[in-house]
Structure formats: C-alpha cells, structure tokens
Design brief:
mainly alpha; three-stranded mixed beta sheet; about 5% strand; 5 strands; about 65% helix; two-stranded antiparallel sheet
C-alpha cells in the first residue's frame, strides 16, 4: 500500500480529496427531485462533466418544468441561475461530442428555456445540426425541423434542405408521428404535387396509429390548414380520433382543433356538441387570466345563455389583470358572440386604449372593427386610433398592410382620404391582388358615401381612384391563367364594389378556365356561384359533368355545397336526374352523421328542384333526428299556462340582451314533455343582422326554417329582430319590458 502511494502520489491525492460518490453521476442526476439538487451536482462536478452528463442535467431541468402547473413554472429563474450558465457554457464546448439525438434534444431544451435564435449557443447548435443533416434519422430530423419552426425559420434554406430530404425518402418513411411533424414544418415551402404526395402517404399510414394519437391527428389537420386544403377524407378520420378522446382533451387541444376547423370551414356537429359540454365543465376550474381568456374565446361563441353569463361575469372580475393580447382576444370573442354587455365592452375597451401604442397594424384593424360592431363610442379611443393608423401609414410600403390601414381609417367616424393617401394607394395598385383592390375600393366607397351625405361633395380624385381600381381589377382577371391561383384571390371577395365592377369579369374568367374544375375545387366554385347569385349555365353544366365523372373522389360533406347553386338559381343541368341521383347515392351512408341543419337544407334544396329522396326524407322525419336538430337550434323557451302565467319549470333563468328573467330552460330538456291543459310552449329567438337580407329587412331561409320546425314541434315562435330591439323606441328598460309583454303575453303598456 505504501509502495502504491509512493508510485502514484498525485493520483492518490486527487482520489482522496475530490467530492465523489460511489454511484455514477448520471444515476445521481436521475434521482434528483428538484432543480437545486441538479445545480448542486453541477457545481461540485463542473470540471469533469461529460457531454452525456450535460445533456442529462438539461433534460432533468426541463422535466421538472413540464411537471409544474402554469403558475408554478419558473423558467426565467432557472435560466438565470449561475449553474445554468455553467451548463450553457459546457454545452458550447461539448456539443461536437454529442450524438445526433442528444444534440437536437439539447437544442430543443435550450429553446424551451427561452433562448432566442440569435443566442450564440442556439446558433452553434443549429450550425452543428446542419453539418450532420444528411445522416439524421427520421425521428431526429422531425425534432430538428420543429426547433427551426419555433425559430420562425420556415422559409429558410435549411428548412428547404429538410423538405428535399423528406421528398427523397418519402417512400421509406413509415412513422406517421415523425412525418406529421415534418409536414407541418415544411408546409410553407412545398409544391402542390408534393402536398398531394404527403396527403396520400398520410392516408396510407393512418391505420398504423391507434385511436389515442390525438397529437398526430391534430398535426395532420394543421398541415391541411397550412396548405389550405379541406381534404374531407383525412379530416373525417382525424375527427373520429378527436371524438374518441374528447373526454381527455384539455383546453389547449380543444381550442387549437376548433380554430383549425374554423380555418378549414370543416364543421363537425358532434365534436362541437361534445366539446361544448367539456368546456362548460371547465368554467369553475380556471381562476387565472391566461387560461380563462382561452376558455372565454373558445366557449363564448357557442355557449348557451347561462354559460355566457358565467363567462362574462368572471372575465369582468379579472379584467384588471388582462394583458394587451388577452384583452384583444376577449374583444374579438365578444364581437363573435355579438355581445351587448356594455359594462364589459367599456372595460375591455379601456384596457385596449391603455395599450394602443403596442399593437401592430392588423391588431389596430381588429380593434376598430370590434369597436364599431359592438357599438362602442369613445372619441378619445377613435382619435388615438386615427393617429396611430396614420403614423403607420406614412411609413408603410407593403400593399396588404396599406390596404388594412386604409380600411381601418375608413371605419372610424368622419372618414376622409386626403391627396397624400390617395397618391399612396395609386402607387401600389400595380402590386395589388384582388383582395387588396377590393379592400381599397370598399374603403374609398365609405369615404365617398360620407362626403356625399355630410359634406354634400364628392372629390373627383376619389372617383378617379375608383376607376383605376376597376381597371387594375379587370386587368388582373384577364391576365390570370390558373384556376387555382384565381380561386385563392376570389373565394373570399364580397361587397358592393366586387359585385358591381368585377363579378361579370370574374365569371368570364372562370368560364375561360373551367376545364381546370375538378373534384378538389368543384365544391368551392359551386359555393362561389351560390354566394354571388350569378347564373352561368356553362359553369353549372361543367360542375354537373365533373360530379358525374369524379363522384367517387368527392367527399359526401361537399355534396350540399355542390347542389346549392342549382337550387338557389333554379337551374337543372342536362342530366338532371342522373346528377341529383348520383349526389344522393354518394351521400346515403352519411345521412345519420351529417349536421342536422345541413341535412334539412339539403332536403330543402332538392325539394326546390322537385327531387325527393326516400332515404333523405326518412332520415329527416324521425324522432331521433328531430331531437338532434332541436338540440342544435337552442333560441330560449318558456311555458305559459292558460292564464298566460309562466310555469316554474327548471331552475335556469335566461335573458336575451336585457330581457326580463323568465322561468325557463333549454328546449332540449323539456321538448316533447306533456303540458297542462291550455298551456303553450313559447320559443323566443333574437334575430341579428345575419338573419336578414343585406339590402332589405327580409327574413332569410335559415331563420324561417327554424320557425317552421319549432311550430311543427308545438311551439309558438316569437322572433325579435335586432333593428326593433336596438331601436330608439326601445332604448329604455320600461320600453323593452312593454315590448316583450306585448309580444309574449299580448298585453298593453305598463303603467309604471
């Protein structure tokens, strides 16, 4: 022993005095229960840490964060710890020795701790990963692509390289989880042909995942949203995954899925019904703004009256704690809910006003739109908005940004375009697409209308600008050589200028390109024709021909949109019976799962063409279907006895705007129940502006159909138009009470 000490005095001295444990350091790290224990190990062993131990320490720190609730997360505190800086520096020196999987995982964790793309360590990790890119397996490649996407590098050459690798190896990829991550990451860079290949590959691999893989299904839907492709077969399969796991979906997941569905215009009655119940159960669970705002935004637009009341009262209580972005989200949701809660509107508007300097141009437009729609009047807010919009406008050179700024300005009180603004618009017209041109024209028309009504003058320069907008719009249509490119620009166009100036030219362009109509775009083109009410027999005949030739590729969910223009425009194609019969045959196996309202509209559309399907009629006229439709209609219900006194059914009181409280409950709970002799069921429905034609107060078909349906179920239906309820005549509480007594009970005015 003494001889050994004499031979190796240095080694013995190191062994004798260094802090050590007989247990390997990795095992010690894995047994740590909090961050301080990890940091303690780092401090004691920083001179001897290997690349594996550095990676393990980072991984453990991130695991501790993931296990905490939102309120308990302390990412900034951990990131600023002296020993985290030690780890940061060690990672820089050790990264080249890390294997591929460890390298990318470390990059992911560093980003989760809030390090930006310009941080030297992040840059070094990305560079090292790029150097190894070709040898990455599919799992590592997918995680790396996700890291780049988080850095907003979706359009970078590096992401392009990843897209190329995926393209070259697509046939050999068998892991849909990894592929779905890659699809979302590279979706901004790939061609239409590559998009179709990825969709086909996804369909092939879909059956390899089990029904619990919600995240995979959500990424597939996100990919479809990114490439703007409402591919119903995949959407339907993903929707089944969501439905089978709905009881396990958290608020984040439900919010994301509904947002994606909205973007894709995909409507699942069953999913909305089930998630509405799930979200309602969450109302008492959230008492901090970040999550409750998300709940408000997600549930609010589909909430019943009682849930809506709870949401509004709670958000009002926590309004002082809202950030600028949370207040903006709440205001947008209130606009969608058509809220008339003046107290909440005023409170949220005051928060927006306080943070107005921090909003981007598109956010200022959203604030302007919501304020006008919700009838919020504040001279101070509008003055500040105008100042900010003009300041942005003076330095803006991007056509789309200029158009939205001009749009917001035109919505404010006393809109006016000076010569500088007109010149700015004229300068960018050659770069504008049809959406920009339509936005400019709508704004100019608002200003012209104001000048005509209040200044008794229409500046000639504004009229000349309108003529230039017409010219550039027609020119763009005449030069268009691709139906898909045309469709991207015209599918959302609306308003007087488009209808008066460009609609005819648009239809001529569609006729010129109609050989490109196929199973992918046929439903969209049909919807456009229905919306514009423009009868083009050649286009409708082409639509019918595509349906007959490619019906197996057309999803049943698209059938109503295809049939609608033939019904709305009172036109039969040459092969009328074969066309309608083919559509119905494609739809038959889906009759039991279609949205109830969609099914009713389908029956109505076919009836207008004097085409009656026995299977469709059986699907509509049965008790189970009527119950589903009844649950979707929801309006408000009360029951009166023969003396016109409300009967005390249920425990819920519902209000309509500021309507008096009536003992009532949702009609789904008591519809079909036996009533006392002489009693009657009353359904009350508030009709907003969307229930009427744009130019005259004529009730549209949807609300008329609801009324007929409820009358069949035995209700006396009272429909209250928004233009009556919001009129000056009903500006006081007493006036509204008298109005309701007259409508519901047939009584005269109150003496109070």
């Amino acid at each position: 022993m003494l001889r050994l000490r004499a031979i190796c005095p240095f080694s013995w001295r190191v062994f004798q005095f260094r802090p050590f444990s007989f247990e390997p350091l990795l095992n010690q790290m894995n047994k740590c229960t909090d961050e301080e224990q990890i940091f303690d190990l780092i401090e004691k062993n920083k001179d001897i840490l290997s690349e594996k131990q550095v990676a393990c320490a980072l991984s453990m720190l991130w695991q501790f964060q993931k296990q905490k609730s939102i309120l308990l997360k302390n990412v900034e505190c951990i990131r600023d710890h002296p020993q985290f800086l030690t780890l940061h520096n060690l990672t820089t020196t050790k990264m080249e020795f890390m294997n591929d999987s460890t390298l990318v995982n470390v990059l992911y964790i560093i980003q989760q701790f809030g390090f930006e793309a310009h941080d030297p360590l992040v840059e070094a990790l990305v560079t090292e990963a790029w150097r190894r890119l070709e040898r990455f397996d599919i799992n590592v490649l997918s995680k790396f692509s996700s890291c780049l996407a988080d850095q907003h590098l979706c359009f970078s050459p590096l992401m392009g390289k990843i897209a190329d690798i995926v393209n070259r190896n697509l046939e050999t990829i068998q892991d849909l989880r990894c592929l779905s991550v890659l699809m979302v990451s590279i979706s901004s860079l790939i061609s239409q042909r590559f998009q179709e290949q990825l969709v086909n590959k996804t369909e092939q691999l879909f059956d390899t995942i089990d029904s619990s893989q919600v995240n995979i299904a959500r990424r597939i839907v996100q990919f479809l949203r990114n490439i703007k492709y409402s591919y119903y077969p995949l959407l339907e399969r993903c929707n089944k995954v969501f439905l089978s796991n709905v009881n396990h979906l958290d608020l984040d997941s439900i919010s994301k899925i509904l947002s994606l569905y909205h973007s894709l215009q995909f409507h699942s009655f069953e999913f909305i019904l089930m998630t509405k119940k799930r979200l309602t159960e969450m109302i008492p669970l959230f008492d901090y703004p970040a999550s409750f705002v998300k709940l408000f935004v997600t549930l609010g637009p589909v909430a019943g009256p009682e849930e809506e009341k709870q949401l509004k009262s709670t958000i009002l209580l926590m309004s002082e704690e809202l950030t600028s972005q949370q207040a903006l989200a709440v205001m947008g949701a209130m606009e969608e809910m058509e809220s008339r809660n003046s107290r909440l509107i005023k409170k949220i508007a005051s928060i927006l006003h306080k943070h107005l300097d921090n909003y981007k141009p598109v956010e200022l437009l959203r604030i302007t739109q919501a304020s006008i729609f919700l009838h919020f009047q504040s001279k101070e807010l509008f003055v500040k908005l105008r100042e900010l919009l003009l300041s942005y406008l003076k330095v803006s050179v991007i056509p789309s940004e200029i158009s939205l700024l001009i749009c917001a300005l035109s919505m404010l009180p006393s809109p006016h375009l000076d010569e500088a603004r007109i010149s700015q618009i004229e300068a960018v017209l050659p770069q504008c697409d049809l959406n920009d041109l339509n936005s400019f024209a709508t704004s100019v028309l608002r200003c012209i209308q104001y000048d005509h009504m209040y200044r008794n003058n229409i500046p000639g320069k504004q009229l000349k600008l309108l003529q230039k907008l017409d010219h550039y719009g027609r020119q763009r249509l005449q030069k268009c050589s691709s139906l898909n490119l045309l469709w991207e620009e015209v599918k959302s166009l609306k308003g007087d200028w488009f209808a008066d100036s460009l609609l005819e030219e648009t239809v001529v362009t569609l006729q010129r390109l109609m050989d490109e109509i196929n199973y992918i775009n046929v439903a969209g083109i049909a919807s456009f024709i229905s919306r514009t009410n423009y009868l083009s027999t050649s286009l409708l005949d082409r639509i019918a021909s595509v349906v007959l030739q490619q019906i197996e590729k057309i999803h049943p969910f698209a059938i109503l949109a295809i049939i609608l223009p033939f019904s709305a425009l009172n036109y039969d194609p040459p092969q009328r019976d074969e066309f309608f019969g083919t559509c119905l045959q494609r739809l038959n196996s889906y009759l039991s799962i279609l949205d109830p309202l969609m099914l009713v509209f389908l029956g109505y559309s076919l009836a207008t063409r004097e085409y009656f399907s026995e299977d469709l009629l059986k699907a509509i006229f049965n008790i189970r279907f009527l119950a589903k439709l009844d649950s979707q209609l929801e309006h408000f219900e009360c029951i009166l006895d023969k003396r016109k006194n409300p009967l005390p059914y249920g425990s819920h009181n519902t209000t309509l705007g500021k309507l008096p409280k009536i003992h009532s409950e949702l009609n789904t709970q008591i519809a079909g129940s036996r009533l006392p002799p002489g009693a009657e069921k009353i359904a009350l429905e508030f009709l907003d502006s969307r229930a009427f034609c744009r130019n005259i107060p004529h009730l549209k078909g949807k609300s008329a159909m609801k009324k007929r349906h409820l009358e069949i179920l035995g209700y006396r239906v009272i429909q209250i138009p928004h233009f009556e309820w919001n009129s000056m005549a009903l500006s006081t509480k007493n006036a509204r009470m008298d109005y309701l007594r007259e409508r519901i009970f047939g009584e005269g005015k109150s003496s109070s």
